[in-house]
Write a structure and sequence with these properties.
Elements lengths: L6 H6 L1 E5 L2 E5 L2 H11 L11 H11 L2 H13 L9 H6 L11 E2 L3 E2 L2 E2 L8 E2 L3 H6 L9 H17 L5 H4 L12 H9 L1 H8 L4
Antiparallel strand pairs: 1-2, 3-6, 4-5
Helix pairs in contact: 2-3, 7-9, 7-10
Length: about 200
Amino acid sequence: MKRPLAARISAILVAFCIAGGCATVLDLEGYQDAAGALCTCPGFELVASCATHAQARITAGSDAERTAFLDTFEKKQCGTICEHAAECYAAIPGCKGEKPGCECCPWNDSVLMCSTSDTCQTCRTCLQVATEPGDGTFECALGRGRLKELRDCACSVCTDDCTGFCQNIELLTTDPQDTCHSCLEQNCKAPLDACFGDKP
């Protein structure tokens, strides 16, 4: 699902180094274009006024919120692949009441259900999706992304111990004596902690 980054975004990203490290500068229009570019990904055509809502929220956001969005955009490589587009869209500022377990654009199965009022909607976090049977509730975009990272690691280095989890037929457990959990603790600790720490 590769797609090229919008030419406007690549033209206005300017990297510069300051004392103690480097940062990335993006003007307001650039942030808006970065957010709007997500709406070209498959599935986003179902999101009503996708680019308009994204750009309005970017405009209303603070500099710190825009920077946090850009950090996610770059970390998840949302300028070049669509795989993490939902997570990047969820990182756009301006979602009223947003917190773990409540997002403006959670997943309803394979469809993003974005709030038209920019008010968060209850959704299942990574911990809930990983350890509890589905109940028809929306799944948080952030949580689903974290679960994918954990599953990718598990299926790479814990294949024998986490076969059921890798095949998406078994849930995880918080029991440290569980062989899959033990393998994840040893080999996939960062994504495991990120997922299990994502709770309402």
